[in-house]
Write a structure and sequence with these properties.
Blueprint lengths: L2 H54 L3 H25 L8
Length: about 90
Amino acid sequence: MNNEELLEQFGKLIDTKLDEKLEPIKTDVQTVKRVVTRISTGIETLAAGQQDMKDNMATKADVQDIKADLVKQQRRIENVEDNTKTPNPHKN
């Protein structure tokens, strides 16, 4: 066996040993990638849900407007009751 053949066999042995050592690492990296993908998907889904809630949630100004409208309607009803001498069934 000459030096070239020895070097070739030595290279193949190193490659085989490296592949044996790297295979579990490659598997772990693939697992980590899958987990990261799932986490990323979950985060994106949460972010979309939060944005949807923000888009559809009443703002403080909306609530204040509704409250002001309710106060106006309550005054109108009280005025009608006063002018028609109709008793309020909810007052004692």
